[in-house]
Amino acid sequence: MFKGKIIVRIGLVLLLAVAVAGGMRWKLKQGRFTPPPTGESILEREVTQAEQLPTGFIVWSSNRFGNHDILRMDLPDRKITQLTTHPHTEFYPRVSPDGRYVVFARSHIPWVSQRKQAPWDVILLDLNTGEEKLLAKNANMPTWSQDSETVYFIRDLIEFTQINIKSGKEKLLYKSGTGDISHKTILQTPHLSPDKKNMSVTLRGRQHRIGIADLDGKFKEIADGCQLTWSKDGSFLYFVDYGGKQKNAIFIYEPDKDKKTMWLDMPGDYSHEYFPKLSQEEDYLIFASSTGGHEHDSADYEIFLWQVGTPAEAASRLTFHTGNDNWPDVFLQPSEASG
């Protein structure tokens, strides 16, 4: 009898532990329920100054002014301007290949964790005039065509859609439930291949994989990571995966060789890499790194610019702030990008 009571108690403890762990995982998936602290500026004399920066600009999402707004930093002088001042959360800015526009996602209410992919809207910002345009309702995670005429995005978590920025005409490219991707599987950071036949995508919810899918849903798994993006000519993809000094590192995958290779892992304290994005000529990589914090919209990520092919330690740190800086993109002047 006594032994039976012990077994029952052990069973209850295990069930409680499983329930607590499940609750923690659920809470993590929901993200923060309140905005993170805005942080403070770090004196630049305490860090190594960036040298020989190219000419152009970067954009990113930051909460340093009290909310996640879209910021711009001109290069090489590193002057920061605030592109948006909207009271709602904004993230995922992407510069058009011609450098004229930025698209980004804006939440429907003042604070939404980026872990909650819906509902958001995609906004088009003209950098020449400062004018904003609602491009797509209930949309998120926009990307550009190489001719700067079409924007691709997720709608309602499960639809991959394109829109012409001038005509407003939309076309559904893919919806979860077709092919190998199960019904209602969440699509994250989809990116259309240069030949427009495949998308790189991170699957979440009912499936938890990262890989390449054609527009009929035939899926090839590549890795366990996220943020998979095509190169300009389709010869490789780059993404975040495990295996680095601070868990994360940036990898490339070559489809023709079915080969995965670690591409960049920072040697210093800021070695938890995230949010990689190549410049339009693919000779520079913009990304963010933390000292181990992971949450997209609350960890202290700092932004770095790396000239592809140089040693990892040569990457230039661009931001110096204890707030949250995420999802950077970069546009370089053609003379710099081609040189």
State the strand order across the main sheet. Answer: 3-2-1-24
The tally of strands reads: 24
CATH homologous superfamily identity: TolB, C-terminal domain
CATH class type: Mainly Beta
Tally of DSSP helical segments: 2
Tally of domains: 1
Mean pLDDT across every amino acid position: 90
First and last CA, distance: 81 Å
In terms of DSSP E residues, the strand content is 35-45%
Q: Strand-and-helix sequence, N→C?
A: HEEEEEEEEEEEEEEEEEEEEEEEEH
Shape by Cα distribution = globular
Gross CATH architecture: 6 Propeller
Structural class of the helices, strands and pairings? Answer: mainly beta
Could you tell me the radius of gyration in angstroms? 21 Å
Q: Do you know the CATH topology? A: Neuraminidase
Spans of at least 5 consecutive residues whose pLDDT stays below 50 are 13-28
The biggest beta sheet, please?
4 strands, antiparallel
Helix content: 10-25%
Commentary on this structure:
By secondary structure, the protein is mainly β. It has one domain (52-333): Neuraminidase (6 Propeller). Helices cover 10% and strands 44% of the residues. The protein contains two helices and 24 strands. The chain has helices spanning 2-30, 334-338, and strands spanning 56-62, 69-75, 79-82, 90-95, 101-107, 120-126, 132-136, 139-144, 150-155, 159-164, 170-175, 186-192, 198-204, 209-214, 219-223, 226-230, 237-244, 247-254, 259-264, 272-278, 284-290, 302-307, 316-317, 325-332. The strands form six sheets. A four-stranded antiparallel β-sheet has the order 3-2-1-24. Strands 4-5-6-7 form a four-stranded antiparallel β-sheet, with no helix packed on it. It has a four-stranded antiparallel β-sheet with strand order 8-9-10-11, with no helix packed on it. β10 (159-164) and β11 (170-175) form a beta hairpin. It is globular, with a radius of gyration of 21 Å. It starts with a helix and ends with a helix.
